[in-house]
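From the shared-data thread, chain only:
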Amino acid sequence: MKQTTTLILVADGAHARFIETHRVEGDGDLHQVGSIDNKLHPSHEIGSDKPGRSFDSGAGGQRHSMDPGTDLHKEEKLNFADRLAARLNADALASRFDHLIVVAPPVMLGEIRSALDKHAQEKLTHTVAKDLTHVSLNDLPSHFKQM
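Structure, as tokens:
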């Protein structure tokens, strides 16, 4: 019987763990095979440069601050999701796993899924829309019983 490898990504916007299980038949033990921390900057440091200034186009010609218009903290998390998906895409293309499970809070899960290429999508068997990054390796299987 062929051994199958399932890769489980457990992530949020700041942390990611890559966990594998190998099965011939029955249950396989979980083994953490890697982790990545997103070096999120504290919110007060992101975009800490003073916003640009512009002149009001009205008759008064008053100056005012320009709003940066984007949530830079959110952008950092989205970039992290893209980095995680790129790693999953590369591992899927290299046939490093047979099945893929992605566990992340709903927004992060959606971002990761949308960045997966066709090779990774074909191996994606389950998703769990929860933040389980702080759940110990021993307690994770209880969250996967219905799979």
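The first strand starts at residue 4 and ends at 11.
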